[in-house]
Design brief:
Elements (H helix, E strand, L loop, with lengths): L1 E3 L2 H13 L1 H9 L9 E8 L9 E7 L4 H4 L14 H14 L12 E7 L3 E7 L4 E8 L4 H23 L8 H16 L1 H4 L1 H90 L1
Length: 287
């Protein structure tokens, strides 16, 4: 079942995330956003039968930022849950206290799953018959069915190795021992396409969609290129027509000019001949 975060728990989460001393300056310049499909962290608790007893966090692994090893300087927002590694564990513990999972009734089976959403992320959790509770924090778009699948698989591995120890372990006493196991589970389920067929199909569909968009974009570019070539071809045709017209006009002009020069040359020759021949003819007649 998917529920909205209890008012007090949600306020605690948002207050821890936004107002912790180590995170206050950072969040002013760049707000945290978990509305994605990323896996953030996994936690293991022990729920005591007494309602007054707070859930005990036995182990935790911050997959998104690995705050314990990087000191809050990871590429992902290391202060995602409040700038101190304990804060996101406390926030989830508050949710478990306000809205505890229903026990499966079987110590070897985890159940009673719940999904609590806030404005920026979701917490998926469940518990077995002995009160061992596993919780996963993810982005809002991470499929809750995959988170449940991860918790179910991780629970089986965890109780095989730490089942008896978890019943009496103190706060965070199993974190170091369980880190390799939690890290491996996070690494596996961080790639949705490899663990969820639906996500794999959606990823392929998205790939085809992107390819089609690229093809359409290329086609539009080719269409624009073809239109540009057509425009240039039209311009060349117009320029060729103008050139042909101008060349014809020039040809006629040169032809007329040549004719005038020829006539002028003939007249000059005739004039010269007349000047030479006329006196000779007149002299011959006088003799």
């Amino acid at each position: 079942a998917t529920t909205t975060a209890p008012h007090e728990a949600r306020e605690l989460i948002d207050f821890i995330r936004l107002h912790s001393p180590a995170n206050s300056i950072k969040n002013k310049s760049r707000p945290t956003n978990m509305a994605d499909n990323k896996l953030r962290c996994v936690l293991v608790y022990r729920l005591d039968s007494s309602a007054a007893q707070e859930p005990t966090v036995l182990a935790k692994y911050d997959h998104a930022a690995q705050y314990e090893t990087t000191g809050g300087t990871g590429t992902d927002d290391a202060s995602l849950y409040g700038g101190r590694d304990k804060n996101y564990a406390d926030a989830v513990a508050a949710i478990l206290s306000s809205d505890p999972p229903a026990s499966s009734g079987d110590a070897s089976v985890i159940g009673g799953f719940k999904v609590v959403e806030s404005t920026v992320h979701q917490v998926t959790y469940g518990a077995d018959g002995d009160g061992r509770c596993l919780a996963v924090i993810t982005g809002l778009q991470y499929p809750s069915r995959v988170a449940v699948q991860m918790i179910t698989e991780l629970h089986k591995t965890f109780i095989e190795k730490f089942g008896l120890m978890a019943m009496s372990a103190t706060t965070n006493s199993l974190t170091k021992k369980a880190t390799p196991m939690l890290k491996e589970a996070c690494k596996k389920y961080d790639d949705l396409s490899s663990v969820d067929k639906t996500s794999s199909v959606l990823e392929k569909v998205e790939g085809v969609k992107i390819q089609m968009q690229d093809n359409i974009a290329a086609m539009l570019v080719n269409t624009e290129t073809a239109e540009e070539l057509q425009d240039k071809s039209s311009q060349l045709n117009e320029q060729a027509s103008v050139f042909k017209k101008n060349s014809t006009t020039l040809k006629k002009h040169m032809k007329c000019k040549n004719l005038k020069m020829t006539i002028l040359l003939v007249l000059v020759v005739v004039g010269v001949l007349a000047i030479i021949l006329v006196p000779l003819i007149l002299r011959a007649q006088d003799d």
